[in-house]
Fold:
Amino acid sequence: MSKATFRISRGSGGDLTPADYEIEIGEGMVVLDAVHQIQYEGASDLAVRWNCKAGKCGSCSAEINGMPRLMCMTRLEDLDLSQPVTVEPMRAFPHVRDLVTDVSFNYRAKKSIKPFKPRKPDNADGTWNMKQEDVERVQEFRKCIECFLCQDVCHVLRDHHKHEEFIGPRHFVYSAALEMHPLDTEDRVADLKKAQGIGYCNITKCCTVVCPEHIKITDNAIIPLKERVVDEFYDPLTKLFRMFKPKK
Amino acid sequence: MTTTGTKIPLPQQRAFGKTTRTDRWWLKPLLVFLGFGAFVVYSTWAAFQGTNYFYGVDGADYISPFYSPLLFGVAEAHPLISVVPEGGRPPWWPGWMPFSAAFFILWAPGGFRFTCYYYRGAYYKSFWLDPVNCGVGEPRKGYRGEQKFPLIFQNIHRYFLYVALIFIIILLWDAMKAFWFTDIDGIGHFGIGLGSVIMLCNAIFLGCYTCGCHSLRHLVGGRKDCGTCSGPIGKTYSCVSGLNGKHMMWAWISLFWVGFTDFYIRMCAAGIWSDPRFF
Ligand code: SF4
Ligand code: SF4
Ligand code: FES
Ligand code: FES
Structure:
């Protein structure tokens, strides 16, 4: 058995001090196991949020060695254990205690997105017909586990605190899932441009880098939505084209 | 966005370069900075030369991609508008301004790359440090992104794409001509020189870069919710999406290769290198 040191941010309401804990580590351990071990060995008041320990509930988000990651999916063998491993709470949300932050901003941001509005059913029994190829594109977005790591790493929220004007990558993924759905009839493009601030994204792709579900957030959700914003607001040719297109 | 309106308390913005990351986070932005920087310096230098852009020794017909389509230039390169001797200028060009045929061309590929989604993300990081890398403190407090003036103009990208698509056809045409050599009697015949291969690769690499463009992906199907509707549209969309997935790789390969193509032709035209003929 070898030992490793974990430097965990302790405190409440944003008043944080790092505390070092040295523990014995074993094969196959993840950072969340280490945190539990630290709780067990004496720091029983160390606050941490977790649930599934399988990378599927999105609760255990934190910053490990400075990068937003799921604690339950970060294996110790992939970290440099010759140095203390820092474990900090996410920086884009208000701090509560130790590793716990208040992520309720995300629930409010999500509410600002217009809900799914399907077209009239295709069949008498109230069902629709779709081709598999047509829904495939939005299926990628449905993998999201709402861990909010992408929100945390996005510099628009993290550094520039544009929470009032920008809904963040997670919610562009959600908008894309609805907006690109073949049955949906709602138009969310004006909201994306104005109230939801998609133009603040400068496509630097940090959200894509940290997504534990490997959703190509920037390439497949944000940029295609930006292109739709261009269609509706910045491209005189498509505007002209639409004026002459017969209305359905 | 409709929120409660009350500002939420957040951690202080970190100072520039401050991070808890332990890896070499500065390495990638530095390499990108050096890579783009080297290309910008070289291409500007090459554009201002106004000479050695055409190689016609032994009946060859190689033109530098920085100067094609040639509007004003040496007679043997068949300029489209008027013949201007090597190092010379058209009579109407203001005397105090340096002249080069490349000036009429380079705004197009330059603007295309400058507004490309991949390059934007990359140079915002490496040159503007916004952010220099993920989870690392930034130098500036204020932020407008692409939401407001001036970067809102990046939305012009699709117009550069339309021009770039025409350029691909021109470069393919140039590459084809590079496989056609004229002998002393003025008879043309098929042949292969190292330059022909370099120019063909150039057109192909630039084609792979251009056809992976996000705006093109949008145009050929992405704008529709049923963009993958079966048939030729669906096929084109998946083709473009495939190239789009490797857009960064093609951006770098084509950037390096277009610079190298100019360099190769420049070296041959200056008589420093001689172009080996295989066939
Ligand atoms: S790509 Fe856009 S949304 Fe994603 S982290 Fe960067 S700025 Fe934020
Ligand atoms: S998009 Fe990825 S990183 Fe963002 S909340 Fe969903 S799963 Fe997490
Ligand atoms: S505990 Fe559920 S994702 Fe980590
Ligand atoms: S997005 Fe890169 S060329 Fe259009």
About this structure: The mean pLDDT of chain A is 96. Chain A touches chain B through 71 residues (CB under 8 Å).
